[in-house]
Amino acid sequence: MKTKLLLAAVIALSLTAVAQTDPQTVIVVEPMAHTSTYRINVVSRSVQAVNYKHRSGSTKLDFTGTNIMPLASGEAKVESERGSIKIRAEFGNLDKPTTFGSEYLTYILWAISPEGRAINLGEVLVGGNSRSKVDVTTDLQAFALIVTAEPYYAVRQPSNVVVLENVIREDTKGTTAVSAKYELMERGGYIPTGYKFDPVILNAKLPLEFFEARNALRIAQSEGAESYAPESYHRAVEQMNTVDEYATRKHIDSKPMIAVARETVQTAEDSRAIAVKKMDEERTENERQAAADARAKTQEQADTAILLRNQAQADAATALAAKTQADSATVAAQAAKAQAESDTAKAQSDAANAQYAATQAKADMANSQAASATALSAAQADAEKSRLKAQQEADAEKATLRRKLSAQLNSILQTRDSARGLIVSMSDVLFDTGKYSLKSGAREKLAKVAGILLAYPSLNIEVGGYTDNVGGDEMNQKLSDHRAGSVRDYLVQEGVATSSVTAKGFGNALPVASNDNSAGRQQNRRVELLVSGEAIGNSSNVTTGSL
After folding, report:
1. Are residues 217 and 243 in the same domain?
2. Residue 246 belongs to domain spanning
3. Euclidean distance between CA atoms 312 and 302, whole angstroms
4. What beta strand segments (E) does 195-298 contain?
5. How far is CA 330 from each of CA 324, 325, 327, 335, 338, rounded to the nearest angstrom?
């Protein structure tokens, strides 16, 4: 019974530094079932990188402890050889990594490229005198060196528990590169939400690799590997069971146990990386679906607005027709009354004096003609005034719509106004060099442009492709044709009517800048969208090109 209890306790061992402590040690025991937390926060840090020239011989640089381990120090010999760079480093005054938390079991030496890419060079094991040595190689030529505390040897991103950084000495050979800025996993990110730690006193001596394996498996589970990478995760669990079986033997054989434990670490880390990748893909797909839903909602709102506007115009036309008919009836009644009064006066006048009636009739006729001429002139003036006012209002509405559309497009891609319409410019950086496939950034911008254009179905879009003068005319013509066609096809794919979009390549025929320098050639490598139509004050009747 005592043996079974001891075996169960050993299998439940997790984050600690038993491999570096006395036999009577407080061991952390934790349950494997918990509420997973799948998000890890990162922070940034910078360090000076050195460019070690190819086959330039050996040089040295120092390491200095950071503010969390100020007494730590070290020295490295860096030797540039054919195909790789050898690094022999020795460190002193290193505290046990568990000083920073029970999840930190070991130290890792990292190479940081000037672009911030971190490469795990190897594990730094602390010796009995708080010193350690490491002999590694890297294929990088320019890099900085740091040492961090980590939960296990196979991590792919450094934690922000940075204990040592390289220091460039006066006699260090090489060129000081830029300050390399890199990302670190935030401290505490290895402790998932929901774990409880219960201290248990055990008399056990197990290698560090055992606890790194337990750590790696727990972290993989906390980051969702059990759900997103079940095959790799369960393989790691099976490997860990084998390690536990070694640990429960009366006489522990450390070599095969360490081998399986290191394999468990690698498998668990692979399952964690797969899970993180799948979660990123899932998040990207959710964002894409949200964008599609937003576009559909925008189109629905635009269709509703058009329907309401058409209904309002129809109601206004009906009201105008009714008013016109009423005005005509009033004029006819007034004319009939006037005619009746005139007939009565004429009859009375004829009865009194025929001559006077004839004279009066002539005078009335003259007055009537003059009044008619005056009325006709006034009516023509009123009609012309109404026509001019309607034209001005229509022109103002088109100008307002044109400015609004220009502002909307310019918020996404550079847009300028011209006599031919609005010209939306796409630089060649939105395409792969020498190709016509759209980059993801270009597709995102074009999706937004399409969403805007869907609200203006009466507009015409002419897509023009242009190149610089590098290469033959035939190659440039084909490239400009394909790039213009790619943009047209993507707009149609996003819902723009096929009949509203045309595409044509112009090769290097219409440069907007000089092709004698790289800046001018970059300006000439472009795709332009000419947006025109009566709705914004002009029609698309000319080709795109340099203004």
Report:
1. yes
2. 2-36+205-282
3. 15
4. 198-203
5. 10, 9, 5, 8, 12
DSSP-H helix ranges across 353-431: 354-410
- In one-letter notation, the amino acid at residue 426 is M
Helix (H, G, I), strand (E, B) or coil at 279: helix
Tell me how far apart the alpha carbons of residues 423 and 352 are, in angstroms, rounded to a whole number: 82
Name the average pLDDT for the chain.
81
Q: Which residue, of 362, 394, 426, is where some domain finishes?
A: 394
Q: What is the pLDDT of residue 240?
A: 87
Beta bridge partners of 538: 533
What is the structure's pLDDT at 203?
33
Say what the pLDDT of residue 381 is: 83
Question: Nearest-5° angle of CA 306, CA 307, CA 308?
Answer: 90
Q: Tell me the CATH number at 465.
A: 3.30.1330.60
pLDDT of residue 87: 94
Claim to verify: residue 218 and residue 271 sit in the same structural domain: yes
- Residue 192 in any domain: the answer is no
Q: What's the pLDDT at 329? A: 86
Condensed to tens digits (0 to 9), the pLDDT of residues 441-493 reads: 888 999 999 999 998 888 999 999 999 888 888 998 999 899 999 999 999 99
Last residue of a domain, one of 369, 394, 419: 394
Distances (CA, A) of 358 to 74, 103, 365, 498, 513: 131, 123, 11, 75, 85
DSSP character string of 40-87: --EEEEEEEEEE--TT-EEEEEEEEE-TTSTT-EEEEEEEEETTEEEE
How is residue 325 written in tokens? 């008919």
Give the model's pLDDT for residue 49: 87
The reply to whether 94 falls in a domain is yes
Indicate the burial class of 341 (C-beta count within 10 angstroms; 0-12, 13-18, 19 or more). Answer: exposed
Same domain, 467 and 522: yes
Asked whether residue 421 falls in the same domain as residue 488, the answer is yes
pLDDT digits (tens, 9 = 90+) for 159-183: 989 999 999 888 888 766 556 676 7
Residue stretches of the chain with pLDDT short of 50: 1-40, 195-203, 540-547
Do 101 and 30 share a structural domain? no
Model-level pTM? 0.45
Domain count, the chain: 4
Same domain, 275 and 358: no
Q: Measure the CA–CA gap between 547 and 150, rounded to whole angstroms.
A: 60
Instruction: Give residue 190's pLDDT.
Output: 54
Q: Residue 515 falls within a domain, yes or no?
A: yes
Cα 501 from Cα 505, distance rounded (Å):
14
- Asked if residue 235 belongs to a domain, the reply is yes
